[in-house]
User: What shape does this take?
Amino acid sequence: MAKSKKNITIKDIAKKAGVAHSTVSLVMNNKGYVSDSLKMKVMKTAKTMGYEPNLIARGLINQTFPVIAAIFPENPSFFTITYFIQIISGIQDVCKDTDNALMIFNLDQTQGESYYQVSRKWLSKNLIIMNIDYTKDMDQDIKVLKKNNISFVLINKYLGDEDVSYINVDNFSGVHQALKHLIDLGHTEIGLIAGDLKAPDGMERFDAFKKILKEYKLKFNPKYVYEGGYFSFDSGEKAALQFLNAKKRPTAVFSSSDNLAIGFMRVIKTKGFTIPDDLSLVSFDDSLEANYVTPRLTTVRQPLVEIGREAARLVLKQSAEKRYRTKHVTLKTELILRESTKPRK
Assistant: This one.
């Protein structure tokens, strides 16, 4: 009876290729020196026989698994937020191409959980950290990762003292695109739904908003700032209540995220406001929901899938290189015009 493909071992490959068992082991584990011609012979034989390496067994031997651990903030609605899902999709693309597994973790720093604990518990030395809450001092945790030679990349700019690799987007350019669009439509009184001001994106978009108004010689009105807080639908709804309770309102609003904008829209529409007839609204992210609400959101697209891909490529490169230098990657944004804005009356 022919041997089932799933039971093929490196001993079978060695016998078929006419080489030593140890040679096949070196090739499969990418360790030691094997000539290119012999390596090609082993790989071709393994492919012909339908060999699939047991990555778990390999990990137990090496005490490390070919795993990228993607660590996200603690959030009960995590798997309903397409912002995160699109980033995960990009990470998964690279995992498929590189024979790495992807594990996803929610980590609550307020409960004393650490990134190093995740790495040790799951034997992963490649971490992608999506941290948007800098209320806790992360420097000590980062130092522990460095001390133990754990490769890691942050998604979002790091605000601490340690030099780390991170991926972010050009927030200033994105906000500039959004505000220029509104100003070109004739809007001079523009409000802001602010994001989390403890997070880099929230801070940078808020600062950019003020600087760009000044650039166009428009007045910044603190009464037109509606505090969204966390980048969520609920926070957008709270911002809408501030908007509705105000005596004087702007003719256009820029939102720091799509989720904030969608929550904001839902509430003000129930009170009789029509977008864009009564209020133009432009947002930031271009999440999947932005194209399916009514009206469809004009928004600044950040390349969420590419952010995930770039983070995965970067952490694997960092892991492979002995003398790795930290890198800061900033990706471009693009304004996507839809239906939520129109010229001022």
Residues 5-53 form a domain with the 434 Repressor (Amino-terminal Domain) fold (CATH 1.10.260.40).
